[in-house]
Design brief:
The structure holds two protein chains of two kinds. Chain A is of the alpha/beta class. Chain A has eight helices and nine strands. In chain B, 24% of the residues lie in helices and 29% in strands. Chain B has a three-stranded mixed beta sheet with strand order 2-1-6, covered by helices on one side. In chain B, strands 4-3-5 form a three-stranded antiparallel beta sheet, with no helix packed on it. Classes of the chains: A alpha/beta, B alpha+beta. Strand 2 of chain A pairs antiparallel with strand 6 of chain B, so a sheet runs across the interface.
């Protein structure tokens, strides 16, 4: 929607200046966030950095999945950094830093999602042009992060085999805005009677055509395929 | 409860518009909320009541227009409204589609000012 100048209409009731005025503003409520995100996206594109926003419930294994991804990138000497959002504590940043990548913790102190300005503030001092990938691990939540654009080029929705095959149908808002779906803890599939076909059908129902990766950080299943997909996503700048 | 952040953004945005038009009190605002926006209308109303205190929206009526999801069906070559958000396929021919034309709205549509500014 364009942020056109508001059109002012005056009701036809008599009474001159006492009549109510309707301002047709037609503006996105999260305009402020969207504007920051748009500026960040332009900056990321100019720097040639691919920005990945990871979203899932608490306990899906975002941090373990990201740590594995960071570790593999660092091993290949690919420049990568991460910011991680949590309500409290910097435990996740500490875990992720073991990968060798620079990591910053965003503490939201109760807020259930990350907003663009929080991410922006935590990028200060980093040379984006030197990075090939930047990961944003969102606060564990399947609803609230949906509405907040963080300037990312790729939104990844994760869910574990222990969460139930109907999760995409329960949270279609998030899955529908995702570019990639990652199923985690696939090594536990048998233990929890995981119905692979049902989950894949449910993901496909709410987001037709989305690439899906079945992974386990513990056994390494599917991580190569995920990395290959990641490598196919390049920043726009040719270096 | 991200509705609280959304309500705060909403009140700030509407207050700005009201200020630009003479600082009048706001009688009503109309929102368009898509069924894919992940926003719950009741939670938004509750949050709105909390954050509008002491603002030009203190007594404003909150009108919410729910927007269903509309997709483009390539097979039928037309837009179709979906009955729900659990299945993104044409309700007529059943072809899957990810081409969403409406339903993500989280928009402030209009503001009704309680009184006009002096000329």
């Amino acid at each position: 929607m364009s942020d056109a100048q508001p059109i002012e209409t005056r009701s036809t009731q008599p009474g001159g200046n006492q009549t109510p005025r309707i301002l047709e503003v037609r503006t996105k409520i999260l305009k402020k966030n969207d504007e920051i995100a748009r500026a960040m996206r332009a900056e990321f594109a100019a720097a040639g950095v691919v920005v990945v926003n990871l979203v899932s419930s608490p306990g899906t294994g975002k941090t373990a999945f990201l740590k594995e991804t960071l570790t593999r990138l660092v091993e290949r000497r690919i420049q990568v950094a991460a910011v991680v959002g949590d309500l409290e504590t910097d435990y996740d940043a500490q875990r992720l830093a073991a990968s060798g990548a620079p990591v910053r913790q965003i503490m939201t102190h109760g807020l259930c999602h990350l907003e663009a300005d929080m991410v922006q503030a935590h990028l200060e001092g980093w040379d984006l042009a030197a990075l090939r990938y930047l990961f944003i691990e969102n606060v564990g939540n399947l609803v609230c992060p949906t509405s907040w654009d963080l300037g990312e080029s790729l939104r990844v929705a994760l869910l574990s085999v222990t969460e139930g095959e109907d999760k995409p149908l329960k949270y279609p808002g998030l899955f529908n805005t995702a570019d990639v779906a990652v199923i985690t803890k696939i090594d536990l599939a048998e233990a929890c009677d995981f119905d692979r076909d049902l989950l894949r059908a449910n993901i496909e129902a709410v987001r037709p055509g989305i690439p899906v990766f079945e992974t386990s950080v513990k056994t390494g299943t599917g991580i190569d395929q995920w990395m290959t997909h990641l490598f196919s996503r390049r920043g726009r700048q040719v270096r | 409860m991200h509705e609280l952040s959304i309500a705060a953004n909403l009140v700030e945005l509407a207050s700005q518009h009201a200020a630009e038009h003479g600082g009048a009190r706001v009688a009503a605002i109309t929102l368009r909320i898509g069924s894919l926006s992940s926003v719950h209308a009741d939670a938004l109303r509750f949050s709105f009541d909390l954050v509008r205190e002491g603002t030009p929206l203190e007594e404003a009526e909150l009108r919410i227009v729910a927007v269903p999801v509309t997709v483009w069906c390539d097979a039928c070559q037309t837009e179709r409204e979906l009955p729900g958000i659990q299945r993104f396929a044409c309700p007529v021919c059943d072809a899957p589609t990810a081409d969403i034309r409406a339903g993500r709205e989280l928009d402030l549509e209009s503001i009704e000012l309680a009184e006009a500014a002096l000329p």
